[in-house]
Amino acid sequence: MPFLEAIFLALETIRTAKLRSFFTLLGIIVSVGFLVAEGPKFVSLAQEVLPDGDGFRAVTHIPLPVVERLVFLDAATGLATP
Question: pTM of whole model > 0.90?
């Protein structure tokens, strides 16, 4: 599917499903707003696995009171820093 055709299809879907598009956008705004407002109370964990150039990324947000301890990894070696 050519890129321009994909853009037209996406715009047509948004136009025909206005209520679903509105609720999707509302959910994104509320989620981002919550994380910005409550950011210091949460720990964000990210994992990346890149085998043979293919990527995978997972981000998880955990409430800070649930976390027992934090261990930071050295980016160069991948080992825990003291």
Answer: no
Token reading at 55:
């990527």
Contact 11, 22 (CB under 8 A): no
The count of other CB atoms within 10 Å of the CB of residue 32 is: 10
Domain boundaries in the chain?
Answer: 3-66
Centroid of chain to Cα 66: 21
What angle do the packed helices 18-37 and 3-16 form, to 10 degrees? 90
Q: What is the pLDDT of residues 52-79, one digit of tens each?
A: 666 666 667 777 777 777 777 776 776 6
Q: CA-to-CA distance for 17 and 10, rounded, in angstroms?
A: 11
Is 48 within 8 Å of 56 (Cβ atoms)?
A: yes
